[in-house]
User: What shape does this take?
Amino acid sequence: MEKFPISIFLFLFSTYSFALVGGMKVNEQDPLSKSVVALQMVEKDSIGKKINRYKGSGVLVGKDVILTAGHNFFYIPDVSLCEAIFSIEPKWGEESNGQTRISVKRVEIFPGFTQTSSGTFNDLALVFLSRPVPSDYAPLQMELEGNEPPEIGENGVLLGFGRSQNLQNQPLSDFQLRKLELPFNRWDFVSIFDSQKIWFSNTIGSITGGDSGGPVLFKRNGLYRIYGIGIHLRYDGCVENGTCEGQSAYTNLTYFSKWIKNTLFKEAKSKESL
Assistant: This one.
């Protein structure tokens, strides 16, 4: 497969993301603020001089495991330089500024990950941290069986650390945890079982750059479950009244259920053997 430089991909993603609102700020009293995590991906050149940092999102699915988008890490040669930041307003850069950070130990990206100018496919990764997350953080349950699929028009809760923008493409605020409710729009194919992506209407808002890897949740039996992971946006433009047309694409966890279970099982077995 031809590899896209990460800078080109981030440009494509931001191009799809212009003029869309990134949601409302999440406060520390919201329980979901203790399940969604900021990710800082770090890339150095061959002699270690030039350092690039990229921002992303992830969601806890274990005490030391984060689920995120594959493209967040696919072009990073040394993931041990990457970190999870545990704050609703992360301080990016080299210094921790008093915030809890945990380095990445290993990343498993779905083997079939591919990327084109129209988006990404098989875009999913599991991030294994070097130590357990802070005790006040808690994982969310994944919807892997597909027993309670969303109905067309049902609102999902989208979360991520993307940059909010107004209709003139000017940043409103910089990369803090936000959430947004958007109606479920469609499957790629017929059902939750044969569609690798699920789509959400963005006439009132959308995921933006930095939201990559953030979850979409639906409430079932009083508890939030993870149904998808944010990967890209199909942007169709805005009209004079400020309504933006397009759809936000999320990796459908049910479609990748077998790979997720097998990867987590192998990690658990490797820990037992230590």
In short: The chain is about 10% helix and 40% strand. The longest strand covers residues 223-238. The radius of gyration is 17 Å.
